[in-house]
Write a structure and sequence with these properties.
- The structure is a single chain.
- The protein is of the alpha+beta class.
- The protein has 2 domains: 142 residues, Jelly Rolls (Sandwich), CATH 2.60.120.10; 72 residues, Winged helix-like DNA-binding domain superfamily/Winged helix DNA-binding domain (Arc Repressor Mutant, subunit A, Orthogonal Bundle), CATH 1.10.10.
- It is built from 7 helices and 12 strands.
- The strands form 3 sheets. Strands 1-2-9-4-7 form a 5-stranded antiparallel sheet.
- A hairpin with a 5-residue loop joins strand 5 and strand 6.
- Helix 4 crosses helix 5 and helix 4 packs across helix 7.
- The longest helix is centred in the middle third of the chain and has 27 residues.
- It is elongated.
Length: 238
């Protein structure tokens, strides 16, 4: 596994448990215990790479603590944050069925505890627990719809509308991003992000304290944003 640090023992405790992951919500305690035996927990520090873009994928990750950003880099070294995920979410699941390489890299935004499950072990488990397969497909479908909405958002929403939606979501999750990261996620230039944030701050809509954006007038942001039709977990920001 690319970027893997020293691993904790299998099982163990984290901020949440396997039963808190939606894809495992149908499992009984004995099944959760069996799955837990195959989960290897790994601790990462702030700003560390969990896996690199182009690296072969051997399984997927469960986020127990902390937040991770998934980033796609272009040939011209431009970056696009695809999503930010936190506790209860999964990472690297898009390579589960094609056995390919990661098409983006994952980087921690702070201290993070993940659980890694090898592909073969997980497929063996899925064969015996088909409800988990449907839960996984349900999750992948919701994310696909969210990414479709975001793609459409690029066509008909202004930079201010896109940034408003992200600011609201980030405010609810407590995630702190730099102006450059916010621009990458909204798909706007850094200059546009800085100008828009300065305008919103000068009008008393938000307050910026270091990397933290404090929302003062949520009603204004709600009014100008284009909401997604897909209701996502608070720890999943797309």
């Amino acid at each position: 596994m690319t970027g893997e640090r020293a691993s904790a023992s299998k099982g163990g405790t984290g901020g949440i448990d396997l039963k808190d992951f939606r894809i495992f919500s149908d499992l009984k305690d004995k099944d959760l215990e069996k799955l837990r035996e195959g989960v290897r927990r790994i601790q990462y520090g702030p700003g560390e790479i969990i896996f690199q873009e182009g690296a072969p994928a051997f399984g997927f990750y469960l986020i127990f603590e902390g937040m991770v950003k998934l980033v796609k880099r272009s040939m011209r070294a431009k970056s696009q944050i695809l999503k930010i995920i936190g506790p209860g979410e999964i990472l690297g699941e898009t390579t589960l069925f094609d056995k390919g390489s990661h098409n983006a890299y994952a980087k921690t935004l702070g201290p993070v505890l993940v659980g890694f499950i090898e592909r073969g072990d997980f497929f063996y488990f899925l064969e015996r627990h088909p409800k988990t397969v449907f839960r996984l497909y349900e999750k992948l479908s919701a994310e696909l719809k969210a990414f479709q909405n975001k793609l459409a958002e690029r066509s008909y929403s202004s930079s201010k509308e896109r940034l408003a939606r992200l600011i609201l979501h980030l405010g609810k999750s407590g995630v702190e991003l730099s102006r450059a990261e916010l621009a990458e996620m909204a798909g706007v230039s850094s200059k546009t992000a800085i100008r828009t944030l300065s305008e919103l701050e000068s009008r008393g809509i938000i307050a910026i304290e270091s990397r933290k954006i404090r929302i003062i007038r949520e009603d204004y942001l709600q009014k100008i944003m284009e909401p997604f039709s897909v209701d996502l977990n608070a720890n999943l920001i797309i």
